Request: fold
Amino acid sequence: MSLLINRRKRRDAFHPEEPGLDASLVPMTQAVPMLPRFEIVRTSAGIVSVARGTWTVDHAAALSDELAAASSTQPAAIDASGLDSLDSTGAMLLLKALPLDASGAPDLERVNGLTPQRIALMRRVAQAVDGDSPPPMAPAALNALLANIGAAMLSILDQGRQLLGFLGLLITTWLRVLPRPARWRLTSVVHHLEQSGLNAVPIVALLSFLVGAVVAYLGATVLAQFGAGLYTVDLIGFAFLREFGGLLAAILVAGRSGSAFTAQIGAMKNREEIDALETIGLDPIEVLVLPRLAALLVALPILTFIAMMAGLLGGMAVGATSLDISPVLFISRLQESIPPQHFWVGMVKAPFFALLIALVGCLEGFKVSGSAESVGTHTTSSVVQSIFLVILLDAICAVVFMELDW
Reply:
C-alpha cells in the first residue's frame, strides 16, 4: 500500500495538470511585453513607418534611439495597429515621428490603426505641446524702446478717454441734480470743504511765504548787479499773481486732497459700500463725487488767494530785511507796476485746476480693484496725474494769455 501511495505522489509532481494537486501552488505563465519598435517599411503605396510594442515612459530612451535612427526618412503614414500600450510619453514621441501638415503641426490623419481612446490621447498631447511653446526671445533694445513708448502712448490715450467720459457723466449728473435743491448734500460739501480747504490753509500759506522769500532773494541777487533791486517787487508780483500762487496751491491740494479722494473712494469700493449704494438706489456720482467737486471748486480759489498774499508777504519780508525796501515802498511799487488783470489771470485758473484734481482723484478711486495694494497704486497715480495735468494746463494758459496780451 505504501508503494502505491509513493507512486501516486511522484506522478502528481510531474503532471500538475492532472487532478490531485492544488492549482495555487503552480506558478502561472505571465505574458512578456513586447519591446517598442519603429521600423520603416516600403510598400506599393510608399514609405510607411510601423510602430509596435510598448510605447510607454519606461521605454522612452529606447524609443528616442529608434526615432533618431529613422529620422532621415520621411514616411507617408504610420501604422500603429501593432501597439500593445501607449501613454502620454509614447504619444509625444509618436507625434515627433508624424509628418507635418500645412500649418506645421503633426498630421494626426497620417496615423492608422489607433483606437478612439488613443486618438483622443494623441490630440490632448498635441494640444499640450502646442501650448507649451518656448518663451519669445528678448527683442532688440530699439524695438523694446519703441514698444514701451507705444504702450505708454496707448495708456495716455486710454486715460484721456476715461477722463472725458467721466467728465461727461459728472456733467449730466450735476444737471440732473441742480434743479432739485432737496438732493443737494450740503452737509457733505461743508465736511469736504473743511478737509480740503480750511485744513490746508497753514501748509499753503507757509510754503508760499517761503517760496516768495526765495524768489525775492534770487531776484535781488541778479537785479542788484544792474542797480535795479527795486524791480524785485515787480518780479515777485508777476510771479505770484499770475503763476506761483495758483500753481503752488493746486499742487498742494493735488497731493493732499486729490490723494485723499482716491483713498476714500477706493476703500469704499474694497468694502463694497459703492455696490451697497447702488443696491439701495443711490447714484455714487451724486453721493460721492459732486460734494467733493463742489467743495474743491470753492476751496481752491480761496487757497490760491491765500498763496498769492503769502508769497507777496514773503517777498516783502525779504525786501524789508535785506534789500532796504520798506513795506510802504513795496506796496506802492506793487500798485504802480502790477495791473489788476494779472491778479484775475491767476484767479481764473483756480476753478479749472480744482476740476482736474477732483476728476482724477475720484476716477482713480473708482478704478481700485479689491486690494490694499490697488488703493496705494491708484493713489500714487492720482497724485502724479493731477500734478502733471495742473502744470500742463498752467503752461497752456500762460502761452494763450501771452498771445492775447493779457
